[in-house]
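Entry: Phosphoribosyltransferase
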Amino acid sequence: MRTSSSEYQKQWNKLMYNFYDYLPTKYKQASQRDWDVRKLIWEFKDGKRSLTVAKLVADKLIQFFGAEAKNIVFACIPASSEQKNITRYKVFADEVCRLSGAVNAFDHIHVHGARLAIHETKCSKNLETVQTIDFDKEFFNGKKILVFDDILTQGYSYAKFSCMLERFGASVIGGFFLGKTLLLN
């Protein structure tokens, strides 16, 4: 099923909160803060800062939603392979949900195969994937979902993932992103 730009626009009009601005490495004149954010994000992607970032995310989830956090399902957009997904999100999602009371969707989304991450290729729009993602569709039906991803660049991964969850009967309330890519002229 093809997703229309109006469906994506609907997702982009929802809550989209980023913790940090992320300056890509192609920009050579980076401040110490830019390098600190890069390092945090890169280490998070490698599973090394899971608990630190989980505390940050859980605190913000509680700040935004209070006691209602217990009725929210926390769903991470899968990484590019099963192993990277486990490394990046298993401990992290467990801890976010433990600290916030949210419901963890990690065990209800399964990654098979792998795809090239967009930053690993020369082309970003015509990327062919060999990854499949299986969802426990019944689990998501009727649930309020908060989506998480490490980096928000243009928002297509977030919108596509959110639309998919809504096709299963979920209601996506928005997304949290560790970093948002800054696109400078």
